[in-house]
Specification:
The protein is of the alpha/beta class. The protein folds into 3 domains: 2-62, no CATH class; 69-80 and 331-437, Aspartate Aminotransferase, domain 1; 87-326, Aspartate Aminotransferase, domain 2. The chain has helices at 2-6, 8-17, 19-38, 46-61, 87-96, 116-126, 137-149, 170-176, 192-198, 225-234, 258-263, 289-296, 299-303, 308-322, 330-336, 339-353, 390-398, 425-437, and strands spanning 69-70, 74-76, 104-105, 110-111, 130-134, 153-157, 163-165, 168-169, 180-184, 203-209, 239-244, 268-272, 283-287, 357-367, 370-383, 404-405, 407-409, 412-416. The protein has a 7-stranded mixed beta sheet with strand order 5-13-12-11-10-6-9, sandwiched between helices. The chain has a 5-stranded mixed beta sheet with strand order 2-14-15-18-17. α2 packs across α3, α2 (8-17) packs parallel to α4 (46-61) and α17 (390-398) crosses α18. Bound molecules: pyridoxal-5'-phosphate. Pyridoxal-5'-phosphate is lined by residues 136-138, 164, 168, 209-210, 212, 242, 244-245, 272, 281, 283, 369.
Length: 440
C-alpha cells in the first residue's frame, strides 16, 4: 500500500482528489488483485496497479457534466440536456447564483413568497388564474395526483398510458402518487361515454395526457378536450391535462397549446420547462386558483420545489416569450432554421473538410417528445470515414474538446448544423479534419 500511494501516478492525484479517495481506490485495486491471485490469475505489478487506480479516479471523479457540440440535429436531445438556455437566461442564472432575493420581499424587508415572479409571468403568458413551479414535469404530475387524488380513482384513456422515457411511465407514476388508475376505452379508440361510465363516487380526477412521442393514426378517436372538460365539470371533478411540450400559445403541428387547453376548460395544465418553452428543466402547473392553491399548500410541493437557478432561468425565458422574442430562444431559433440558411453553412464546413465531405438533404427532428413523426427539412454534411470507419471517427469526435456528438447513417458520418450555434461551425470543421486525419 505504501509503495502504491507513493507512486508518482498517485502522489499527484492526492492533491486533486483527496487522500481518502486515493486510499479507497488503492484498497479496492489491491483487494481485486488479491482475489485474482487466489483464483490463480497473475499478480499485477506496481505499475499496473498504479495505472488501474489512476484510471478509476480519473473515470469516476474527473468526469463532470461537460458542454458538448450537438451536431445530431435533434433539437430537444434528452441525453444532451434538452433545451439550451438563452443568453438572457444564462445571465439570470449567473445573477442568482450568489445571494438572491428568492424568498425575500425587498420593498418590505421581510420574507417573501418563493416563485412569485415566475408564477406571475406564467399567468401573464398563459392567461391562467394561478401557477406553480415544480422541478420537472414528472414532479409536477406526482404533486397534482398526490395532492388532489390520493387514495381515489383517476380516470384516464388506455390510449394515453404512455412512457416518456427515462422511467417516466404513467401507470407507475400514478401508483407512486397513491392514486387508483381507472383505465377507460382502448388503445386506439376512447369515447366520451367510456369516461362517463367510469365516473362515480370514488373518482377524484379526470386525466388527459398528450401522447407526446408517438402518434396513433387510422381508426382512432378520442373526445375533444372541451367535451371531456364539460363532462368532468358536470361531475364536479377537475380535469388535469398533461400537455408535455409547453407550447404556450398558437399552433405548431399537432402540439396542444397551454392557453388552448385552459380555454377548452382544463382545470390544471402541466408542461415541461425545457421542451418547446425553451427554458430550464421544470414542471409547470397552471390553472384554476382553488386547485393550484391546494397544491401549493401540500407537503409534496416542498419536496418537488424548484431551486433558485431554475427560477431565475425560467423567469428570463418567460419574459422573452411575453416580449414576443420567442424566436431568439435557441430552441426556436433551431426549429425555425430554413434550408436556405443551413445550406451555405454546411457547404462551408464540407469545403474545409475536403473531398471526403459532401452535402445532402435530410431531416432534423424536434425531439424531446415534441412533434412526433414530423421531420424538419435540413441540409446534412455527410463524411466518408474510410479507412477508419464511422464508429471510430464518431468516437474521435466525442473524445475532442469540446466533444462533438454526431451520428452514423449507412456507414457515413452525418452532421446536422441545425443544432450547432453558427459560431461553432469552424470548430466542427476542425474537429472533423482532425478526426479523419487521425485514421490515415
Ligand atoms: C416530457 C413529458 C413529460 C415529462 O416531463 P419531464 O420534464 O421530463 O419530467 C410528461 N408528460 C408528457 C406528456 C411529456 O411530453
Amino acid at each position: 500500500m505504501d509503495a502504491l500511494l507513493g507512486h508518482p501516478e498517485l502522489a499527484g492525484r492526492t492533491g486533486r482528489f483527496g487522500r481518502g479517495a486515493v486510499l479507497g481506490a488503492a484498497r479496492r485495486a489491491l483487494e481485486a488483485s488479491r482475489e485474482a491471485a487466489t483464483g490463480g490469475m497473475p499478480v499485477p505489478g506496481l505499475e499496473e496497479l498504479a495505472a488501474r487506480v489512476a484510471a478509476e479516479l480519473d473515470g469516476a471523479l474527473a468526469e463532470r457534466t461537460r458542454a458538448v457540440v450537438n451536431a445530431t440535429g435533434v433539437v430537444l436531445h434528452t441525453n444532451l440536456g434538452r433545451a439550451p438556455l438563452s443568453a438572457a437566461a444564462l445571465e439570470a442564472v449567473a445573477g442568482a447564483a450568489g445571494y438572491a432575493a428568492v424568498e425575500y420581499d425587498l420593498a418590505a424587508g421581510a420574507r417573501g413568497r418563493r416563485g412569485a415572479a415566475a408564477e406571475a409571468l406564467l399567468r401573464a403568458a398563459t392567461g391562467a388564474e394561478a401557477a406553480l413551479v415544480a422541478n420537472n414535469a414528472a414532479g409536477g404530475l406526482l404533486l397534482a395526483l398526490g395532492g388532489l387524488a390520493r387514495g381515489r380513482e383517476v380516470v384516464v384513456s388506455r390510449g394515453e398510458l404512455i412512457e416518456i422515457g427515462g422511467e417516466f411511465r404513467l401507470p407507475q407514476i400514478m401508483e407512486a402518487a397513491g392514486v387508483v388508475l381507472r383505465e377507460v376505452g382502448t388503445t386506439n379508440r376512447t369515447h366520451l361515454r367510456d369516461y362517463a361510465a367510469a365516473l362515480g363516487p370514488g373518482t377524484a380526477m379526470v386525466l388527459a395526457v398528450h401522447p407526446s412521442n408517438y402518434r396513433v393514426e387510422g381508426f382512432a378517436t378520442r373526445p375533444a378536450l372541451a367535451e371531456l372538460a364539460e363532462l368532468a365539470a358536470g361531475h364536479g371533478l377537475p380535469l388535469l391535462h398533461d400537455v408535455g411540450s409547453g407550447l404556450l400559445q398558437g399552433r405548431l403541428g399537432d402540439e396542444p397549446s397551454v392557453a388552448g387547453s385552459l380555454r377548452a376548460g382544463a382545470g390544471l395544465v402541466l408542461f415541461s420547462g425545457d421542451k418547446l418553452l425553451g427554458g430550464p428543466q421544470a414542471g409547470l402547473l397552471v390553472g384554476r386558483a382553488g386547485l393550484v392553491g391546494r397544491l401549493a399548500r401540500h407537503p409534496l410541493a416542498r419536496a418537488v420545489r424548484a431551486d433558485k437557478l431554475t427560477l431565475a432561468a425560467l423567469e428570463a425565458t418567460l419574459a422573452e416569450h411575453l416580449a414576443g422574442r420567442r424566436d431568439e430562444l435557441p430552441v426556436w431559433r433551431a426549429l425555425l432554421l430554413t434550408v436556405a440558411e443551413l445550406e451555405p453553412r454546411a457547404a462551408d464546413v464540407a469545403g474545409k473538410v475536403g473531398p471526403a465531405a459532401s452535402l445532402r438533404t435530410g431531416t432534423s427532428v424536434a425531439g424531446g417528445g415534441s412533434l412526433p413523426g414530423e421531420g424538419l427539412e435540413s441540409v446534412l454534411v455527410e463524411v466518408d470515414p474510410a479507412p477508419a470507419g464511422a464508429a471510430a471517427v464518431l468516437a474521435r469526435l466525442r473524445a475532442g474538446d469540446p466533444p462533438v456528438v454526431a451520428r452514423a447513417e449507412r456507414g457515413r458520418v452525418v452532421l446536422d448544423l441545425r443544432t450547432v450555434p453558427p459560431e461553432q461551425d469552424g470548430l466542427v470543421a476542425d474537429a472533423l479534419v482532425a478526426a479523419l486525419a487521425a485514421g490515415r
